[in-house]
Amino acid sequence: MRFALGEGCLADAVRGLLAAELASQSAYLERLRDWALQITERDGASTRADRLQDVYVAPPFSGDDPVSWLLDDSAPRGLLLQAGSGMGKSTFLRALAAACAEARSELIGRLVDGAGASGNPDAPEDDGTRFAAAVAGAAGEGDAEDAAWRVARLAAYTPVLLSQTRTPELYDRLTGADGLPPWSFEEFAFAALPPLSQDTVRQAAARGEDGAPLPGNPLAQLLGREGVLLMVDSIDEIPRRYRPLYLRRLKEFADQAGVARLLVASRPLPPDDTEALHGLMGPDAARARLAPFDPARQRNLFERVTSRGGADAYAGPTFSQVRAVAGLRDVMGNPFMLTACALELKRSRNAASRGAWWLFSQINDRFRKRATLDPLDRFALERLAFDLTVGKSALPSAEFIERFRRYRSEEGAYQVRGGGGAGADLDEDEVCDLIMSRLGIIDMRAGEVGFPYAAMKGFWAGLWVRRCVERGQSMPKSAMDMEGLDDAHQQTCFERGAATGVRMCRQLLGACGRPAEEDDGEDGAPQPEAAPDAADDARARTALRAPSDDAALLALMFALDYAGSRTHPDYPAFDLLCSQTYRELLTQCLLGAADEARAAACALRTASAFGFGQPLAGYAEQAAPYLPRLSAFSEG
Questions:
Q1: To the nearest 10°, the Cα dihedral for 361, 365, 366, 370?
Q2: Is the pLDDT at 591 greater than 80, yes or no?
Q3: pLDDT at residue 302, rounded to an integer
Q4: How confident is the model at residue 116 (pLDDT cuts 50, 70, 90)?
Q5: Which tens digit of pLDDT belongs to each residue from 171-221?
Q6: Residue-by-residue DSSP string for 404-442
């Protein structure tokens, strides 16, 4: 720079301005990198941040590879990255932002100092530099020279990562509601950033000769530069009523000359939103999907998470033991769910002696993207999960929404009779936001809605069984501790609640041996199927189905697991449920029809190892004594 500019007042002024610009960029990049390399749990249960380098496992992609796309000058300007909830879209964007920030920060350091960012060309690479190289090399293996070239190519981009807000008032400002003048997209996008990210963006604001920030939106100033990589996360989390406007305004925002590349991440969206999203990206945009999370990478991540704090600190079930539990094999294919499971197992000193009910009850709230869930929403979803477990595994979106509204309304009326309060009716957009955009455990694909993981569906169906048993007792909540009721009345209540649960367990057992396409409907009666046409055939081929939809068996296991525990105040009813259900399974094994006998035998085998290789609580007392006799009878 000094050679090109020469000497004199003009050169000194230009050098000063350039140095200030580079300093502001460097401060922004360093803070962005530090933020991106620190991750916390989704629900905020732990304020302790983990280093992304410690838990990040580079994902493979199907379709275009985002890293190769970014390094290829001839690639399209835009790329759409799609995957289900928890598959690692946001984590990958953070990793890419951190890698670009590190690479560009190193470039600025060399430009200013003629050496590395530390000023010492012989200084060893720190964790961030190694992380940048790892991300840059994720697209393929190569020699050191190739890896250095990849990092240098990443340095050409200034990363800007936009996240979504969960504050409806900000979206109202984007539309100009309540007579207020609508915000520009720059104003909205900056206000939607977390406070720490806002401070980071302010670091990049243009500055005058005195070093003070110039007036104007700092995000707009940042995008006014050349070589910006604009990344937009979680389009699916934008409320549906604002989504079309958001995408139109985002397109105008992203069309600025300074934006060199646009990378957008989203879960699959309904058809109308998908069309608007493709309008944003353009017809020639690249497409990328996260490839399935294979067992080798699952084990790698599980061992990374459980080994933090020392290799000998974890004494819970091994990865193989956890993955062998029915239903968890599919869950472990989701990086977020696997991490949540591993963290909870690591935190518990008695994890080895507990079953899947305990694990799912601990981590259920962390699967959700919403910080809170209205009780009416919870009850409606539990009941819907039971419907989708004993009937079809997915419903057309209109029918799913209709049932959700009806169940929510019925629950509100029930709570009013019991002294609670009913909630307001929700329109279609609000329902979709509640159960799809923000929940994180329900998906819509090809016009159908369902639970993408059988274990999650089975767990929520098990919650509905538990709730029905508790209500079947007809005991007021104030008397749940059994005070004020005579023994005979208590026993009658417990038997009534247990009978409710046994009936539901019979439904679950009946669904274990039935194809997923059969639908018993809401009243238990088989429903006629309409003759399929070509459109229905195409929809069926792409409909939402869990990888191995054994949700009915899992719901039965969850119900038995809970019934065998002593963590609830009304356990006598669940003791009866447990004993009567095991008796039912043994009877079906001995006297049931072939399909019923097979389903009952499968349930007993599953219960014998549902506690991470150990039998469920109550199994040894209720079922184990009879199994040798049953085996001898079958052989005879």
A1: 170
A2: yes
A3: 92
A4: very low
A5: 888 888 777 888 888 889 888 888 878 888 887 776 666 666 667 788 888
A6: HHHHHHHHHHHHHHTT--PPPP--HHHHHIIIIITTSS-
Structure tokens at 598: 């097979």
Cα torsion for 359, 360, 361, 362, to the nearest 10°? 60
pLDDT average, residue stretch 83-98: 88
CB 528 within 8 A of CB 520: no
Smallest Cα–Cα separation from 151: which of 93, 105, 89? Answer: 105
What H or E segment, with its residue span, contains residue 350?
none
Helix 487-512 vs helix 571-591: crossing angle, to nearest 10: 40
Those residues with Cβ within 8 angstroms of residue 420's Cβ, 6 or more apart along the chain or in another chain: 412, 414
Give the separation between CA 178 and CA 189, rounded to whole angstroms.
Answer: 20
State phi, psi for 491 to the nearest 5 degrees.
Answer: -65, -40
Model pTM?
A: 0.79
C-alpha to C-alpha distances, 407 to 382, 511, 565, nearest whole angstrom: 10, 22, 29
Which structure tokens are listed for 633? 């009878």
Our CA dihedral for 467, 367, 396, 167, rounded to 10 degrees, sits at 110
Confidence of residue 250 (pLDDT cuts 50, 70, 90): very high
Distance in angstroms (rounded) separating the CA atoms of residues 580 and 496: 12
CA distance 436 to 561: 28
- Whole-angstrom distance, CA of residue 307 vs CA of residue 96: 25
pLDDT in tens, 520-561: 334 333 333 333 333 333 333 333 444 446 899 999 999 999
> Tokens for 42?
């989704």
Output the pLDDT for position 543: 39
- SS3 of 205-246: the string is CCECCCCCECCCCHHHHHHCCCCEEEEECCHHHCCCCCHHHH
Segment among 141-145, 299-303, 515-519, 575-579 with least mean pLDDT:
515-519
Tell me which residue of 191, 190, 192 sits closest to 204, measured CA to CA: 190
Q: What is the mean pLDDT of the chain?
A: 77
CB contact set of 448 (below 8 Å; sequence gap of 6+): 394, 395, 396, 397, 400, 539, 543, 544
- Three-state DSSP at 67 gives helix
In the structure encoding, which two tokens stand for residue 171, read together?
């979206």
C-alpha distances out from residue 500 to 411, 413, 565, Å: 18, 21, 19
Residue 135 carries which side chain, given as an amino acid letter?
A: V
Burial class of residue 134 in the structure, from the number of CB atoms within 10 Å of its CB (0-12 exposed, 13-18 middle, 19+ buried): middle
Closest CA to 25 of 173, 221, 172: 221
Residues with Cβ within 8 Å of residue 589, at least 6 apart in sequence: 597, 600, 601, 604, 630
H/E element holding 142?
none
Angle, CA 67 vertex, CA 62 and CA 43 arms, to 5°:
80
Dihedral in degrees, nearest 10, Cα atoms 254, 103, 204, 49: 100
Q: How far is it, in rounded angstroms, from Cα 423 to Cα 426?
A: 9
Nearest to 374 by CA among 417, 429, 431, 419: 431
pLDDT tens by residue, 117-135: 444 444 334 444 567 777 7
Gap between the Cα atoms of 436 and 224, Å rounded = 35
